Amino acid sequence: MCANTYLFKASETELIIPAPSRHKKKVRRYENNRKNTKETGIYQPSIQHKIGGKDSSDRSRFLCVGYRLYLGGFGCGFLLEYPKGHRILPILSYRSDWLYMVHFYSHFLIPTVMSKVFLLGANKEIDRAKQEVEVNQVIQMEGYSYDRYVVYEIRKNDWGIAYKLINLRTKEFYTADIIRPLSEKFGIGYYYDSENPQFMDAFEVAILLLQAHGQKKAEDEKAEQERIRVEQVKEIGRKRFTEIFPEDAQAVIVARLRQNESDSQTDYYAHSTQRTVIIGFSKHKRDIFSEMRKHVSNFEETTYLAEPNEDYEHREKYSMGDGYYLGESKYSGWIIEKEPVYNRERTIEDFAYTSGNEDNIHLKKTDTMPPSKPTGESKDSCTLVEYSAKAVAVFGDTKAIKDELKAMGGRFNSHLTFNGKRLAGWIFSKSQERQLAYYFGLD
User: Residue 213 falls within a domain, yes or no?
Assistant: First the structure.
């Protein structure tokens, strides 16, 4: 059980067990579909027996002692006491499927107003309705840091008491709902010295509160200025990325610079992305390392990844994995990966900020598609023409550039017709017209 797990106690909780459905096949179909299951009230008979149902045709109703269980970021539930022991019934939440327990829905649980908390690790019950400290009293944090706080306001609600705090070091606002005596210290939390309580002068607290409000206002203004700046960059990036984004692109190949944020002493492993560079596009969503290596030379800082090296090929397509990526480490340095395109507008928005800085786009000449006149004849005696409403064609001496034309998605056809004559040439999708015009240097 995690350290921040609490039990909210209710003196009596009524549990209504719905009658099992006779349509077992329908149950199996909907057992993993929350919406349909909730609407139809269908549950497997086996679940009825697990929680105390008498038989498959009984609608049981009984009273039991219950605790509301808060599982940090993993959802909520009820710990119910039965003659034969305990059962944990999670209330449906967006992460309740992470809990390996019997699933139940909240509209079958009728809790009373709860203010008592039971700390599992400390094996102690705390009444949140009971005030522990006073206004202007100094408390401290134990665990994450050892900062000191002053209580500047105390609020009461149906769930108990909320203590409004100011950090004496950072002058930031915090809220605490549980403050325990330092003499009963157990685990991470807020504590007060019950033997030698410390208080600040009310005038000092008032000055500190003014300073904290001023700091909060300045931070909010700075955040608003940053939001405006980011939106301005995105506005430029949306237009720029749209111009280079091929219509038939199925994925964006990117280079990401990662920074190690791990702390081995606390078994914390993480990384942050410091920079993202667009280095190419792909016409498919498949993860192919050879394709990634072809694009790394577009960006000078990733050219070292062009040489085949199995140690750089990471295949982590599993739960909690980082997917397919090319790089030395997932925690630091440059990695290459593909971002699939499922929605064009969503992809443009995702890369708007990155594209706002022109230095974050490093593409080959054949990958870019700036505006240009779509048809004409190049200096290499190749002619680009509009072949049909959905296709363009390239005619001429293309033998020397056949690999490039093929890489751009062209298909060679020796039986094309142009100006009433049968000619050999390359056929392309209409979406490639601007890219081809730029490639041939047409005005």
Answer: no
